UniProtKB/TrEMBL annotation:
Superkingdom to which the source organism belongs: Eukaryota
Gene3D superfamilies referenced in this protein's UniProt entry, alphabetically: 3.10.450.50
InterPro entries reported in the protein's UniProt record: NTF2-like_dom_sf, Pathogen-related_defense
PANTHER family recorded: OS01G0248500 PROTEIN, PATHOGENESIS-RELATED FAMILY PROTEIN
Protein name in the entry: Pathogen-related protein
Length: 215
């Protein structure tokens, strides 16, 4: 994984350049990460040195998330080993690329009838629209710790943002919403991801959206 900023974004690869000239983007062009990069720089706990294991893992994870959200064709993904890729959350059965694009992994632990967010009824576009509305300045990602390096990368991560937009009819709280968890990425010799496993508290994450607004 290239650690330079020559791809056009400071923290994500595979957005610009000759390799992306035929890429089909969800919104017709690569995303602009200026706001979320600002949020990241102002709120991160650690600035990892360029070329360090932590910085390389952080770039890989950011690039993977960018591709999953904004590239509409799997053949345009550079971060994945498409023949072997699997994905799971909290020990659930692995799912395919097609399935992950049709759901979010923040399913709350309660009956489907009471879900505020039902991933079975969402598409990749609607879920992305929900999050960009809630977090107009972005939902930043940082790597807090890397426990083991490739080929099996075990790391602790933090996602965060400020809920400055509504969520399913609930007014914005302006509060900081955080998601902290562990992940395991298994990669091949070319640092393409073969397997993803995420572990985090889904109920705690969703509760950040449902806090009552203080008057």
């Amino acid at each position: 994984m290239d650690s330079s900023s020559s791809h056009g974004d400071k923290y994500s690869s595979f957005m610009y350049g000759e390799g992306e000239k035929n890429t089909v983007w969800r919104n017709g062009a690569p995303p602009n990460y200026d706001l979320v990069n600002k949020l990241f720089e102002e709120g991160r706990n650690q600035e990892w040195p360029i070329g360090s294991v932590e910085e390389k893992v952080q770039r890989l994870v950011k690039s993977w998330e960018m591709e999953m959200v904004y590239k509409t064709r799997v053949e345009d993904y550079k971060t994945l080993n498409l023949e072997k890729f699997t994905f799971s959350v909290n020990g659930r059965p692995s799912i395919t690329i097609a399935e992950i694009r049709q759901m979010l992994s923040c399913r709350p632990p309660c009956p489907r009838s009471s879900w505020y967010y039902d991933p079975a009824k969402e598409t990749a576009k609607s879920s992305n629209d929900t999050f960009t509305t809630m977090f107009p300045c972005g939902f930043a990602l940082e790597i807090l710790h890397v426990y083991t390096g490739p080929p099996e990368i075990v790391y602790k991560f933090r996602h965060w943002g400020y809920m400055e937009g509504p969520f399913k009819g609930r007014p914005p709280s302006g509060d900081l919403v955080e998601l902290i968890g562990l992940a395991i990425f298994t990669v091949d010799e070319a640092m393409r991801i073969k397997k993803v496993e995420f572990f985090y508290d889904r109920g705690e994450f969703l509760s950040g959206f449902l806090r009552e607004v203080s008057l």
